From TrEMBL:
InterPro entries: CBO0543-like. The keyword Transmembrane helix applies. Keywords: Membrane, Transmembrane, Transmembrane helix. This is Group-specific protein. The chain crosses the membrane at residues 23-46, 58-81, 93-111. The lineage of its organism: Bacteria, Bacillati, Bacillota, Bacilli, Bacillales.
Length: 116
């Protein structure tokens, strides 16, 4: 849900667009990514993060941010993204780091809440 809202916000601000996307007449964002790819990656992230120490988890989150920034540029070269001149791929680096840190905090909070 967070990813969908962020995509909708940045598309509305014309920071980027998705020229190739499912149901393009209905959605301005790539709904396939936000409904399938991001939840699958988030699930994988949680499963891996559960096995890591705090330091390893931080390094893992940094690695995800770096990979997201790189993959975004690759997707752009394939025509899946169009970014405005104001866009900086560092936004994705830090954006994904913040996103997955938040996901981990929420997951950790929910797990600890169940123990009561």
């Amino acid at each position: 849900m967070i990813g969908t809202c962020l995509d909708a916000f940045f598309v509305a601000k014309q920071m980027y667009s998705f020229p190739v996307r499912p149901f393009s007449s209905i959605f301005s964002i790539n709904i396939g990514f936000t409904l399938f790819v991001l939840p699958i990656l988030t699930t994988i992230f949680i499963q891996i993060s559960k096995t890591l120490s705090a330091v390893s988890r931080i390094l893992f989150i940094i690695s995800i941010g770096i990979c997201a920034s790189i993959f975004e540029q690759v997707a752009e070269s394939f025509g899946l993204f169009i970014h405005s001149l104001d866009w900086n791929h560092t936004y994705s680096l830090f954006g994904y780091m913040i996103f997955f840190s938040f996901i981990w905090k929420v997951y950790h909070f929910m797990i600890n809440k169940k123990e009561y």
